[in-house]
Amino acid sequence: QVQVVESGGGLVQAGESLRLSCTASGLSFDGFDGYALGWFRQAPGKDREGVSCINWRGGYRDYADFLKGRFTLSRDNAKNILYLQMNTLEPEDTATYYCAARKTTNSCSVSWGPTSYPYWGQGTQVTVSS
Predict the structure, then answer these.
(1) I need a labelling partner for 54 at 20 to 30 A (CA). Which of 22, 43, 67, 113 fits?
(2) Is 114 helix (H, G, I), strand (E, B) or coil?
């Protein structure tokens, strides 16, 4: 059973940066190869929305338009860790951030909704003060 774990959330001021991490246990020898990983976020009273995703094998990345280039995905292939670098944070970025995984032979799309991913982490809170 794949278990996803996120970390790295916290409280920052507007304009500052944070880096979230995502890894998993229960992976096969190939690690995240053959998986797509997605970052989602959910603010109180709002739906969970896609932030970004990566197809691990090919490295293709997709980002939500509303990020305006402020967030970037990177990865440590050897350690099977995915990072979400979040720069120039805004109060509107305040949310619980979730990492999710799914097996796929395709690329990925940030338009893939939450139901597309069977494996989820517990979430990490990001709070941006003004």
Answers:
(1) 43
(2) helix
Residue in 121, 86, 100 with CA at minimum distance from that of residue 7? 121
DSSP label at 118? S
Q: Which residue has the tokens 């992976």?
A: 27
Per-residue tokens: 110:
């940030």
Which pLDDT tens digit goes with each residue over 49-96?
Answer: 999 999 999 899 999 999 989 999 999 999 999 999 999 999 999 999
Q: Tokens 């990345």 label which residue?
A: 61
| 49 neighbors 64 (Cβ within 8 angstroms) | yes
Show the DSSP H helices in the chain as ranges: none
Is 90 in contact with 14 (CB distance < 8 Å)?
yes
| 98 Cβ contact list (under 8 Å, min separation 6) | 6, 39, 40, 41, 42, 48, 120, 121, 123, 124
Which of 101, 121, 98 shows the shortest CA–CA distance to 33? 101
Three-class DSSP category at 103? strand
CA 108, chain centre distance (Å): 13
